[in-house]
Design brief:
By secondary structure, the chain is mainly α. The protein contains 7 helices and no strands.
């Protein structure tokens, strides 16, 4: 079953259970997927890779909004963003932890032959492509800077 069908089924279930928190998050996912499907230049359907990218984008938006709301002491809006974030994250593949990311980046640096910050672009491009959907780009960037900065 595709992600779109799963979301539709979960929306029905959330409506029947009167679960407004889950329903709000699911509707956000559905809207983003529909938008991706109708984008100019998009294929007939949305690939699984594209679905993961859309979900990652939603997670990033929710995290940034939650941080802003928390900084401005808007706990009510912060809670809403966090609730939606948890619903969206449930549909993403399991994320790698920082130790696994660091290990993978070390292997990639050896493979590419990177020695300084000048080579960061090569390493980032390769790692981002290979770990798409499995690791956050911000974390990858931090780890690469730590390793190459020394």
């Amino acid at each position: 079953m595709s992600l779109q069908q799963t979301i539709d089924q979960d929306i029905k279930t959330a409506m029947l259970n009167k679960d407004s928190v889950r329903l709000r998050g699911l509707r956000a996912i559905k809207a983003a997927l529909l938008l991706a499907k109708t984008e100019k230049g998009a294929e007939a359907g949305v690939s699984e890779e594209m679905e993961v990218r859309v979900l990652q984008k939603l997670v990033k938006q929710r995290r940034e909004s939650a941080d802003i709301y928390q900084a401005q002491n808007r706990e009510d809006l912060y809670e809403i963003e966090n609730e939606e974030l948890q619903v969206i994250e449930a549909f993403l593949p399991q994320q790698m932890d920082r130790v696994a990311i660091t290990s993978y980046i070390n292997e990639t640096i050896i493979r590419v032959g990177a020695t300084s910050m000048k080579d960061m672009g090569k390493v980032m491009g390769l790692v981002n492509k290979e770990l798409a959907g499995k690791a956050d780009g911000k974390t990858i960037s931090e780890v690469v800077k730590e390793i190459l900065g020394n």
